[in-house]
Amino acid sequence: MEVKLPPPPPLKTDPAQDKTGAVGVAVARLEDLVNWGRSYSIWPLLFGLACCAIEQISAGMSRFDIARFGSEVFRASPRQADLLIVSGRVSNKMVPVIKRLYDQMSEPKWVIAMGDCASCGGPFNNYAIIQGVDKILPVDVYVPGCPPRPEALFYALRMLQEKIKAQEKLGNREE
Ligand code: SF4
Prior knowledge:
Blueprint: H1 15-20, H2 30-39, H3 51-59, E1 83-87, H4 95-104, E2 110-114, H5 116-120, E3 141-143, H6 150-165
Helix pairs in contact: 2-6, 3-6
This protein binds iron/sulfur cluster (SF4).
């Protein structure tokens, strides 16, 4: 015997709610909310060392548009920046300068090693260049390439955003 099911009731929607996008009540941990805000407002220091810096500068131009990731505010003062992008080879003479800039940045702060030179010395295996900026600073993300394109820097930025969102505690960066 064939059983006929009644038709499903029509969906009741409130057109006014559809327009406002109201979702009712949402709950979240304070850490998650702060990390979410931090991850989409990373301000890099206005700083470059060598040829990789040209690609870093390109990333800020309208063609590549780093503003899509919330990081267009390159700060000229380390006290207003929370991301140090080391773009280029690090000479021994620059080590104290880079360390001082990093120390002047406020916590929490992060470091991206952009390019082969910053990551491991690149083609400069000699006495004048240190073989990776991680010898003097804690690096969060490494970007390979000589030079890496702006898209590679954006990928690193996305990885850093995920790392920030996963931080368990507020305050200083987690090593
Ligand atoms: S990785 Fe290549 S492009 Fe970047 S600073 Fe070194 S030599 Fe220049």
